[in-house]
Amino acid sequence: MPVDPNPAGLAAEPGATAREQTRRRIIDVAIDLLERGGRDAVTTRAVADAAGLQPPALYRLFGDKEGLLEAVAEHGFTRFLAAKHIGPDPQDPIRELRVGWDIAVEFGLANPALYALMYGEPRFTTVFRIGLELLTERIRRLAAAGLLRVEEDLAAQIIHATARGAVLTWLSLPEPQRDPALLHALREAMITAVTTQDPAVQEQGPAGAARALRARLPDQDVLSPAEQRLLTEWLDRLSA
Amino acid sequence: MPVDPNPAGLAAEPGATAREQTRRRIIDVAIDLLERGGRDAVTTRAVADAAGLQPPALYRLFGDKEGLLEAVAEHGFTRFLAAKHIGPDPQDPIRELRVGWDIAVEFGLANPALYALMYGEPRFTTVFRIGLELLTERIRRLAAAGLLRVEEDLAAQIIHATARGAVLTWLSLPEPQRDPALLHALREAMITAVTTQDPAVQEQGPAGAARALRARLPDQDVLSPAEQRLLTEWLDRLSA
DNA sequence: ACATATCTGTTAACGACGATATTAGCCCTG
DNA sequence: CAGGGCTAATATCGTCGTTAACAGATATGT
């Protein structure tokens, strides 16, 4: 394993390693071949030819072809995130969720071959994991507002599954049968499944959540009386 | 185009053409190879070898490899329909919809490689079209009962998309992260989007407030790290 | 009944693919 | 100037999908 001569990632654009530059060039031509001629068009020979090197060079940079495709998926994903990044909207986290879902779906519709590469076959890939983690981050803001109907991990899975089904189904339909109402219906179904209409907490911050929980604590039966007694004490401290 | 010597499909099992019998044998071994070793294990040589012929024989029967895979997908689909066919339930078409969705999802979870072959890549295939048509048939009964919220075609697309997202997402998750609540949530989201039935609003209880407090826990400093750790565990239990 | 056509499966081979071992060129350090 | 270590090119292997040419079996037509 060679040492990265640019560990901090400073000046990544101009000062990147030659190795990193050729990697980028190869990934770019691979994405181009992918979107132009489908997955079967991405052969080691075609990629090497379009990038101006010999096929064995790919194996030194990506290990094998699967590594190349993984790098392609990862790069396409990060490029999408960088281009369409939306700032947090503390005013309306539900609107933020809608916008984020729309952006993810639009990315799939705009890059069908890349999307099929990333989410076509069901495998636990890095891209899949990172996508869920980024979702979890935003879901936390929903939870903090008391707007979450389900657990955070489950919410991320629901959001991902509806978007994935939306993109793949849309792309499977012949053009005249594609109706934007499908996307709208799936998005709103996702919103209903994930969020709740009336927030569970009114006041912001940990104190508000603690007071809301303390008020509803008698309804539960998953904690023993002793646990509940100690929890109540902590909630009182948090409420102050 | 040769004339089908058995157009009525009578006595399909014993009286089938020799051609039809070898086709079935080849499809069976192809399905076996598919579920055992994934899509890459289905090579013309491996299939021919397992079926006791030489590779060129496949081309007389299926045209090319894509034709073979298409026949595999189609056969797996019809076999699934024959095995799990459910009769119409005029008493409760919404329950019929739930059962049908569950069956479709279970089929995907039970035959992951076959499902990925049928619905992994977004293409307008015969299997996709027939699946939607069969759905439309049942949706008509919902419409007749006045329970449909959207157009029939759109309803079929919503049902398909939620099931597709459910299966692929479920199969993408590592085993410990697979929660049946995902399937339940997606199914009920589908019901809400497709039918006029009001969503069964379950009483929130302390779960929402617990999730809100858990999301805001890092913001506080009145609890010690040890207290916070135990509190997090309790909040997770309350959130479920 | 016999010749003919069709079907079915074989052997052999082609071109392209993913992948690797080996060899030649290059730069940097001493 | 010498030599080690990295980079890149050459040549090659085994496998893949696919096709051509051919042989036996079967059905068909007169």
From TrEMBL, chains A, B:
Pfam families reported for this sequence: TetR_N (PF00440)
Keywords assigned by UniProt, alphabetized: DNA-binding, Transcription, Transcription regulation
Residues in the DNA-binding region annotation: 43-62
Domain of life: Bacteria
InterPro entries xref list: Homeodomain-like_sf, HTH-type_TetR-like_transc_reg, HTH_TetR, Tet_transcr_reg_TetR-rel_C_sf
UniProt keyword RNA-binding present: no
UniProt KW Transmembrane keyword: no
Domain HTH tetR-type: 20-80
Name the UniProt record assigns to this protein: TetR/AcrR family transcriptional regulator
Organism: Streptosporangium fragile
